[in-house]
Write a structure and sequence with these properties.
Blueprint lengths: L1 H18 L2 E4 L18 H7 L5 E4 L2 E3 L3 E2 L6 E4 L5 E4 L1 E3 L4 E4 L2 E5 L10 E3 L2 E2 L1 E2 L1 E2 L18 E5 L8 E5 L15 E6 L7 E8 L2 E6 L2 H4 L11 E7 L9 E5 L2 E4 L12 E4 L3 E6 L5 E3 L2 E3 L2 E5 L5 E3 L2 E3 L14 H4 L2 E4 L4 E3 L2 E3 L6 E7 L2 E3 L2 E3 L9 E9 L1 E4 L2 E2 L5 E5 L4 E4 L2 E3 L8 E7 L8 E9 L2 E5 L10 E7 L1 E7 L2 E5 L7 E8 L3 E8 L2 E5 L1 E6 L6 E8 L2 E2 L16 E3 L9 H4 E3 L4 E4 L66 H4 L6 E3 L8 E6 L3 E7 L4 E8 L3 E4 L6 E6 L4 E6 L1
Parallel strand pairs: 1-2, 2-5, 3-6, 4-23, 5-24, 6-25, 12-20, 23-26, 24-27, 25-28, 26-29, 27-30, 28-31, 29-32, 30-33, 31-34, 32-35, 33-36, 34-37, 35-38, 36-39, 37-40, 38-41, 39-42, 40-43, 41-44, 42-45, 43-46, 44-47, 45-48, 46-49, 47-50, 48-51, 49-52, 51-53
Antiparallel strand pairs: 7-22, 8-9, 9-21, 10-11, 10-22, 13-19, 14-15, 14-19, 15-18, 16-17, 16-19, 17-18, 20-21, 54-55, 56-57, 57-60, 58-59, 58-61, 61-62
Length: about 750
């Protein structure tokens, strides 16, 4: 019976493969075409409409300004021949007219969100603000060149929206110059971020209708240190620098470089949330696509893959009352379903989340690089894992982020072989990896055997203003049933208040148990282990710290009585705190043990955890004589940089633009037959002698042929597959090598 079923399955698979078709899309195709390489469609959506299970859509180089809705399961969208394919959520803005002071305006009906982004040749331009962001850096408010200024926010009667804001260095502007703009602050405890609409401005002060709930409610968390912090103003009147823009009253405003007319430039604004939408489907593959100014939605779908791709500039500026993690506000690459894979991808540049996992089982994020995310910082995460089971995050690099690298709410999550650094750039009281029972203080979170292992978690700080510089590697508050082992954790140091911490456990009115910390190396930290037994109603049971090296300078929260309930065995704290006497080179992140140091052979055996070289396990993350495994992503981030080409990439060089229609009547003509051709030789016919040039799809000259006679053959075996232009003095012919 089994053999019969297997035979039937194989026949079915062969049949499906034999039915599978390939379709092609080109920016200079037509949707009325056949969809072949020689006669491609113009839009990806046209291909999506005709694809059947097993089919593949090959996309030729160019920018496709579409929201592609996938119509069927088990279909693939792939860049053709490694072409640079951009699917953009931004549309070109035209019909610019001079507004004033070198500023131009153009009609703009608005995007799906209250704010947008503007791009010049694919590069993000700065939204008009005071003070100016002169560097483009979005997450360094302590650098006055990045568009932040010292400010102070004040309270009034609870529930009243009107608020006062003081900018000590704001001067020289007429009364109500900034009326109607947006105030954004980072004040008090730096996870509130008060925002509001400016109702008036006079001298150094603003009056603001508060949007942030904590500000309206006079939350004391805003007013720590008298409400002092950083802030800025978004307003059209702040548009005073080249490269700045603003949107208002169904128009977009932009100030180009001196002497430039924006009608001659490639300017686009973000209008769409999605580049691809996959809903209630399975087995859809997106391969080799650069998503720009948009994101990807995988909703109630299973077994889908986004591979070898990038998603950049996901979400624009936003304002909101609370500080939750909702995808509807903070965006991100959205995944809801089972067995989906994000692999070999670059995800970067957003006011909100990077990846949002919204329920499902067995989803995997592998060999991805995420950075420059969470500019708004209000509970943003590079990866937000909501209500998922058996999530795997492995061999990824997670760089600069406004708040969390990875935040999970419940269920099993395995975080292994990752490189995590530079978290908490825009806030306080959080960390690199977080799971918490939040406001449900008495209800612990079951992490169901989660494993956090073989990660390098390092070099993170936080904002210095205020008294809550709490930044952690592992923020596991009110959680239980997990194992943390063989991690290198170092350089969590804060500046004003020493709050850089290895692990924080809670327990906050609950009992945490079965929490295991084995063979970690923890160095250059302010704190080791911290606890907060809220209302003295928390308990610890079967919490182990075994075989860990922890910097002796890192304090523990021993004042909390439940600290004594932790099971400590075979740990090592350096007598001197001098990493150079213990490690090969701690200053360079090399935490291999030196010969003869005390942690060697001083550990205890832990089943399925420890290894040994000399008969007894060592203490710490690296067994003597071995090296720490390679961690993080190995993708080339630069390969995903978007160098924008014209809408039709095959005619992007103005020196070779001569349309086929114009040249048909000329005395000299060229025909390539057949077309497409195989990758060997180009056969063509012509009348008259002439010189020939071959250009690639980006307009670069790749081959020159001297004067040739009629009926000739050109060797093109050295050219890669793709689209080319064959140019004579009076005609251009496009041909394809397949």
């Amino acid at each position: 019976m089994m053999k019969k079923l297997l035979s039937t399955f194989m026949v079915l698979m062969v049949s499906i493969n034999s039915w599978a078709k390939d379709y092609y899309v080109s920016v200079d195709g037509k949707d009325s075409n056949a969809g072949t390489l020689a006669s491609p469609f113009k839009t990806i959506q046209k291909a999506a409409n005709v694809l059947s299970p097993g089919d593949t859509c090959y996309i030729l180089e160019g920018i496709y300004r579409e929201n592609v809705i996938v119509k069927d399961s088990n279909v693939t969208f792939k860049n053709y021949n490694n072409d640079k394919v951009v699917v953009s959520g931004a549309d070109v803005v035209k019909n610019w007219t001079l507004y004033k002071n070198g500023i131009y305006s153009a009609p703009y009906p608005g995007s799906k969100r209250p704010f947008t982004m503007l791009f010049l040749d694919g590069k993000r331009q700065e939204m008009a603000r005071w003070p100016d962001n002169k560097t483009g850096e979005m997450m360094d408010p302590e650098d006055k060149n990045t568009g932040y200024e010292d400010c102070q926010v004040f309270q009034t009667k609870s529930g009243v929206t009107g608020r006062r804001v003081l900018f000590p260095n704001l001067s020289g502007f007429p009364t109500d110059f900034f009326k109607g703009g947006i105030f954004r602050g980072i004040n008090g405890k730096k996870w509130i971020n008060p925002t509001g609409t400016i109702t008036g401005s006079r001298g150094k002060e603003l009056t603001v209708d508060a949007i942030t709930e904590g500000w309206i409610e006079n939350s004391p968390k805003i007013y720590t240190d008298d409400g002092k912090g950083f802030g800025f103003i978004f307003h059209l009147n702040a548009l005073d620098r080249e490269g700045e823009w603003f949107q208002q009253d169904n128009k977009v405003y932009f100030k180009p470089a001196a002497g430039k007319n924006p009608n001659d430039l490639l300017i686009a604004t973000k209008n769409r949330d999605w580049a691809f939408q996959i809903e209630d489907k399975s087995g859809v593959v997106i391969d080799g696509i650069r998503v720009h100014a948009a994101s990807i939605e995988i909703n109630n779908s299973n077994g889908c893959q986004v591979i070898n791709s990038s998603v950049q500039y996901l979400a624009p500026f936003l304002t909101r009352g609370g500080f939750g993690v909702a995808h509807s506000q903070l965006g991100g690459l959205y995944i809801k379903g089972n067995n989906n894979i994000i692999k070999n991808c670059y995800i970067a540049h957003s006011w909100g989340h990077g990846i949002f996992l919204d329920g499902g089982n067995n989803n995997t994020i592998e060999n991805c690089h995420l950075e420059d995310l969470g500019w708004i910082a209000q509970f943003t995460s590079s990866i937000q894992n909501d209500s998922n089971q058996n999530t795997k995050i492995t061999r990824c690099t997670l760089g600069a982020t406004g708040r969390f690298h990875i935040r999970t709410n419940e269920g099993k999550i395995d975080i292994t072989y990752n490189d995590l650094y530079d978290c908490m750039k825009m806030g306080q009281d959080a960390g690199s990896i977080q799971c918490t029972n939040g406001s449900a203080w008495g209800i612990p979170v079951d992490m169901k055997g989660s494993e956090i292992a073989f990660n390098r978690i390092h070099d993170s700080n936080t904002l210095t203003d205020g008294d809550k510089e709490f930044v952690l590697a592992l923020y596991l508050e009110g959680c239980y049933n997990y194992t943390v082992h063989h991690n290198l954790i170092y350089n969590f140091k804060t500046d004003v208040v020493e709050d850089g911490t290895f692990a924080y456990l809670g327990p906050r009115q609950t009992k945490i148990m079965d929490c295991y910390f084995y063979n970690n190396t923890v160095w250059n930290m302010d704190w080791g282990i911290r606890l907060w037994n809220r209302d003295k109603k928390g308990f610890i049971e079967n919490v182990r710290f075994w075989n860990n090296i922890i910097d002796t300078k890192a304090k523990d929260g021993k004042e909390n009585k439940i600290y004594d309930d932790i099971n400590f065995q075979n740990n090592y704290r350096s007598e001197t705190g001098n990493g150079n006497s213990l490690f090969v080179d701690a200053s360079k992140g090399d935490y291999r043990l030196k010969a003869g140091v005390r942690p060697i052979d001083a550990g205890r055996n832990i089943n399925n955890i420890t290894t040994d070289v000399n008969g007894t396990p060592d203490i710490g993350a690296i067994e003597f004589g071995k090296t720490f495994p390679e961690v993080g992503s190995n993708i080339d981030v630069d390969s995903f940089n978007i160098e924008v080409v014209e809408t039709d990439p095959t005619l992007s060089n103005p020196d070779i633009i001569k349309t086929i229609e114009e040249s048909r009547s000329r005395s000299i003509y060229v025909d390539v037959m057949p077309n497409p051709i195989e990758k060997k030789e180009l056969k063509f016919t012509q009348k008259g002698n002439t010189n020939f040039e071959i250009y690639n799809s980006q307009g670069a000259l790749v081959k020159v042929i001297e004067t040739v006679a009629d009926d000739n053959t050109i060797d093109v075996s050295n050219l890669s597959l793709g689209v080319y232009l064959l140019k004579t003095d009076q005609r251009v012919v496009k041909f394809i090598i397949e």
